Amino acid sequence: MPRVLRFRSRWASAAAGLSVLASALAGCGGGGGAGPAVLDWYNFPDDSGALQQAADRCGQRSGGRYTIRYNKLPRGADGQRQQLVRRMAAHDAGVDILGLDVTWPAEFAEAGWIREWTGATAERATADTLDAAVRTATWRGRLYAVPYNSNTQLLWYREDLVPAPPATWAELLAKAKELAGEGKPHLVEIQGAQYEGLTVWFNTLVTSAGGSILTPDARAPSLGTPAVTAAAVMRDLADSVAADPSLANQMEDQNRLAMESGTAAFELNYPFVYPSMKANRPDLFPHFRWAPYPAVTAGRPASVTIGGIDLAVGAFSRHPGLAAEATLCLRDRDNQLTNALEGGLPPSLRGLYTAPELVSSYPFAADVLAALDSASVRPPTPAYQNVSIAVSHALSPPSGIRPEQDVAGLRGQIQAALGSKGLIP
Prior knowledge:
four-stranded mixed β-sheet, globular, alpha/beta
C-alpha cells in the first residue's frame, strides 16, 4: 500500500507528540492573525446533543487555537460511507476528522485517506482503551484511528415471563416454545433483514462456534463447520414459533418497538433499548432485564461482534497536528461519559465502566464490559462492504437458509468479494 506508506512520514512529523503541535500549527496554516483554525468533523447524526457538546468543549479548551465544526452525515451507514468515500477520493482538504464505522478503517487506510497514529499520540490514543476497540482501528499492525465509542449486544428479556434467562440458543428457542404453548408473549426479536445487521448476527454465531468468516490474513474465506453451525442456528430460529412474522424485514429499531409492544419475550439488541423501554413503557420497564448473549455451545461463552465509531485524521487535512489534538479531546473521559449518558453509546475507555456516574445510569455496565472483553471483530479487510453484502444476500431470508449448501456457495462469493477494490460505492 504505497500511498499509505507515503503519508506515514508526514503524519509522524506532524503528530509525533502533542508537544510539537504548536510548531506544527504554523506549517499547517492555522494560528497567527487569521484566528483559530476551523476543524471540520464528519460524524453520524446525533440527536442527543452529546457530539455538539464535545465539539464545543474541545474548542473552548484549545485556548483559541481551533474550533470544531460538527458536520452531520446521513443517518444510514451506507450513506455515511458513501459521502466520506467521495470526499476522500476527491482529496478533500476540508475533511479534518472522520467518524468511521468500525468496519471502515482498513478500507480508508489502504486507500491512503487517513493518517497513521505513531509515537506519543498513538500511546495516548490507546491508553485505557478496550483491546477489541483498538483492533477495529488497526490495519496491518498499524493504528489508523482512535476508538471513539464501542457497542455490543446483550440478551434482553421480560423477567415476569422468564425468571431465569436462557444461556444457549437451544434453551432460548425451547423457552420461547414453552411460552407460546402457554399463550404468553414469546417472540425472539433479532435483526433478520438483508443488511449489515444480518452479517453481524452471522459473524457473532460463527465466532461463538469457534470459527471465523475469513482466514487470519483476511485473504480468503474460512467458514467451515462453525459457519454451518451458525447458519443452522439462524434457520432454526426462523422456522420456530419464536420468529417474528416480519423477521426478514427486522432491524434494530423494529426489534425495540416489538419488545415495547409487549409481543416479545426476548430481543438481541444494543443498550439503547434500555432507556427507550424506560421512557416508552414504564409499566413493562420494572420487568426488563438483561443477560449475556446466548452461547452456541453450552459452556462456551458467546463472542459478540463489537460495534462503535473510530475517529481518524484525514490524509489531506490542512491542520493534521491540530486535528490529532482535537481527536484526542473528543474521545477523552468527559466527552465519552457525556456520550454514554446522553447519547446512549458505551465507552471505549475501560476505566469508565466502573465510574459511579456511568454505573448509576448503566446498571448493565459490567455485562457490557464482559461482552466487549470477549468480543469478536468483523472481518478486517478493505473489501469488507463487499464481503458483508455477500453474506447478507446468501443468508436472506433466514427461513430459506440451507446451512451446508449456502455456506458452500458463500465461500465462492466471499472469494470474489475479496478480489474487488471495495472503495468507490
